[in-house]
Amino acid sequence: MIPIEDSVPRHCPPLITWTIIGINVAVFLYETTLPPQALEQFMMLFGVVPARYTSGEFGYHFLGGKIVGYWPFLTSLFLHGGWAHIFGNMWTLWIFGDNVEDQMGPLRFTIFYLCAGIVASIFHIMANPTSTLPTIGASGAISGVLGAYYVLFPRARIILMVPIFFFPFFFELPAFFYLAFWFLEQVLSGTFALAAPRWAGGVAWWAHIGGFLFGVFTCRLFLLGAKTRHWCGNTYAELSDTWGFFNNRERI
Q: Residue 55: helix, strand or coil by DSSP?
């Protein structure tokens, strides 16, 4: 199922969502200019390698220097392994990110997005502690956005497309059911990957799970306050009850 559109209008230009998409596209275009060996080094340098953080003896040498530190927890969020990878991630962020940013505001949304990506990487490391493969992609952070959307806009309508024998079939689902189904799919796939690791390559399922859970359980923290105002325009929305705000703001 491919999400095409949601029913929640935005009130402000999603500047951070657009910026994140722009950075990801720019980095990916740079990746396409690298020869295979240099690209492999680039991914190892800036991707999250679980064994780098769970084994004191494991290290990656790049231009004679041993890579240490935690910058890959951030840099890996802007790397992608192919056209389908980046298109799928950026399209999902385009559909769901604007409304979450609309509620949090640019600064809080930026912090939320990066924290979701970091937590997603931690979940992946815990599930694959001995892996020496670099983990890349924005899907962990975007999963956090999906988790926040699940909480903030459960009654929104999501238009989905399913290709059947090369013909597109369109239908609507409430966001609650669509995202719950998506999360269940991640849990089942992640559990299967742990049980049969030889078939688990390619998708960091537990990063998706960790990011989504982070979004579900922390998105309200990024909305705390007696009053919240949309940061753009002349009309301000005052929210007296943060925990019940979507009943007033959601339009479906």
A: coil
